[in-house]
Design a protein that fits this description.
The protein has 496 residues and is α/β, with parallel strands linked by helices. It has three domains: 16-154, 3-Layer(aba) Sandwich (Rossmann fold), CATH 3.40.50.280; 162-389, tm_1862 like domain (pyruvate-formate lyase- activating enzyme, Alpha-Beta Horseshoe), CATH 3.80.30.20; 413-496, no CATH class. The chain is 39% helix and 16% strand. It contains 19 helices and 16 strands. The protein has helices at residues 30-37, 57-65, 81-94, 105-108, 129-140, 169-174, 205-217, 234-244, 266-273, 291-296, 305-315, 333-346, 368-371, 391-409, 417-421, 427-442, 450-464, 469-482, 487-490, and strands spanning 16-22, 46-52, 71-75, 99-103, 122-125, 149-151, 177-179, 182-185, 199-202, 222-225, 253-258, 280-287, 319-326, 350-355, 374-375, 383-385. Strands 2-1-3-4-5-6 form a six-stranded parallel β-sheet, sandwiched between helices. Helix 2 crosses helix 3 (81-94), helix 7 (205-217) runs parallel beside helix 8 (234-244) and helix 14 (391-409) crosses helix 16. The radius of gyration is 25 Å and the shape is globular. It starts with 15 loop residues before the first strand and ends in a 6-residue tail after the last helix.
């Protein structure tokens, strides 16, 4: 065993350490906070760490080891399987006596698929808050679990201790703050991990509202509600919006997940419209405009999508982030193109294009044989081929999504993008043409310097599409300068 690192005054000893890897530094782990808030009476000495994917595993190991813990609990998600696998193996080699517990969505549905499952002592699947503390005490007392995998019963939500006081002032001012008022989903979509949750369950409304108002009073600027379908309970949603509207005058913004299928009752519609324009960021789960495909995967209500988009964009004047999934069972290239064009015509603020993934715990497998679905066995389990889409098609769609996120969703080129999108009768075809051209030149969709991208766009629009050079130079120059850069020092050569 390697010796433990010396413990500084800033690194107290702890019997229990909770840790996870977040996707980015700006993200926070609501799951860890729920566990911390519900450790129960006489909790052990506890420390916790949130790493992001830029933190080397060796550094994370050192920071955990500095506490000299006897028990480590890790939250496993689709994005952190690889670093947590390496972290577990390094910690196990350094300290064979350390007890390790796993939880989180990635090990809840298929714990046996976790690469280092043989290195852990216990896996708690499902919503673990109600039983996590008792298992920690038992493991710290030396008890050996009779089986490695324990399935947590659904907790009684009103009996859980709310975790929102565990957000620090630093979190509130520099990171995303997540809250939830419900769990579960009213739908049973085959592609979603919430499809089998058995409906929606509510947290007590008033304590949750009090916690949200406390966060607003402490200076939080954006509250991100992780309720799967915020508008599934229209009356409840209206109450929340009305209770927090006072803080809109102090700059509070809300991030909400909506479904276009739910009814926009008068009380919810009135509450939405009372918020200032742009203060509501709504993620709208469209997924597909193809009615046959949507019914196949048990996603109802395609006919209501256009009305929902019109209402949220033009009446509520919310910022709308619209989700599309490409590659659903039976969906063809033409159907994907038609869906993107139909969504682009509404001009939402963001269009998130995501290739279908076979997440553990979903029901996509029931379509695999009929539609010849082939998925990558490694996270994030993306679709590789189907009966309507070849591996080449999927590679092009993945590149399209990556380039679109850079050029369309980040709003870096608001004056230049229209020249690209109107170059063909189909907006999808227009951007796919650019995507293929960029890939031919760069050979990748990520890690492209902004000046190199501007130079490429200038060449594409002037040489490939034959736009007048002065017109494109003016558009690109205006986009570049709008970002606050000083053109006399940093302007790309093609724009000088």
């Amino acid at each position: 065993m390697t010796p433990s690192l010396p413990v500084s005054p800033a690194t107290p000893l702890a019997d229990l350490v909770l840790a996870t890897y977040n996707g980015r530094f700006t993200h926070t782990s609501l799951g860890l906070r729920w566990l911390l808030a519900n450790l129960g009476p006489n909790p052990p000495q506890t420390a916790w760490h949130e790493f992001d994917l830029r933190v080397p595993v060796t550094q994370a190991v050192q920071r955990i080891q500095a506490h000299q813990p006897r028990l480590l609990a890790l939250g496993v998600y689709i994005w952190n399987v690889q670093p947590l696998t390496a972290l577990i193996r390094e910690l196990r080699a350094a300290n064979p006596a350390l007890r390790i517990v796993l939880g989180g969505p990635e090990v809840s549905a298929a714990p046996e698929r976790f690469p280092a499952i043989d290195q852990v002592d216990l896996v708690i699947t499902g919503e673990a808050e109600a039983i996590f503390g008792s298992w920690c005490r038992r493991l710290l007392q030396g008890e050996r679990p009779p089986q490695k995998i324990v399935h947590a019963p659904l907790p009684d939500l009103p009996r859980l201790q709310l975790p929102y006081h565990l957000y620090s002032d630093h979190d509130l001012h520099s990171r995303h703050i997540y809250v939830e008022t419900t769990r579960g989903c009213p739908f049973q979509c085959d592609f979603c991990v919430s499809g089998g949750t058995g409906g929606v369950r509510d947290f007590p409304l008033q304590p949750t509202l009090d916690a949200c108002q406390s966060l607003a009073a402490r200076g939080v600027r954006t509250l991100r509600f992780v309720d799967r379908t915020f508008n599934a309970r229209p009356g409840r949603g209206a109450q929340i919006l009305n209770a927090l509207r006072l803080w809109a005058g102090h700059g509070l913004r809300l991030h909400l997940e909506f479904t276009p299928q739910a009814k926009y009752r008068a009380d919810l519609a009135t509450a939405l419209c009372a918020w200032p324009p742009g203060s509501l960021h709504i993620e709208l789960g469209i997924q597909s405009f193809n009615e046959t495909v949507s019914e196949r995967v048990r996603r109802p209500g395609v006919k209501s999508i256009d009305a929902a988009l019109n209402f949220l964009l033009n009446t509520v004047r919310a910022e709308v982030h619209a989700d599309l999934i490409v590659g659903l069972p039976g969906e063809s290239w033409d159907s994907i193109a038609n869906g993107f064009d139909r969504l682009w015509a509404h001009q939402p603020h963001e269009i998130q294009v995501g290739v279908l993934k076979h997440l553990p715990g979903t029901n996509l497998q029931r379509h695999a044989a009929a539609h010849r679905l082939v998925f990558d066995p490694k996270p994030p389990y993306a679709l590789l081929a189907s009966d309507h889409l070849s591996t080449t098609d999927l590679a092009r769609l993945n590149r399209f999504a990556a380039y679109w996120d850079r050029l369309g969703n980040r709003r870096l080129f608001p004056r230049t993008l229209p020249f690209i999108m109107c170059s063909h009768a189909s907006a999808f075809t227009a951007f796919m043409h650019l995507s293929d051209w960029l890939h031919a030149g760069f050979g990748r969709a990520h890690g492209i310097d902004l000046n190199d991208m501007i130079t490429a766009l200038y060449a594409y629009l002037t040489y490939e599409l034959r736009y007048p050079r002065a017109m494109i130079r003016d558009a690109l120059r205006a986009d570049f300068c709008a970002e606050g850069r000083r053109p006399e020092r940093a302007l790309p050569r093609c724009l000088r």
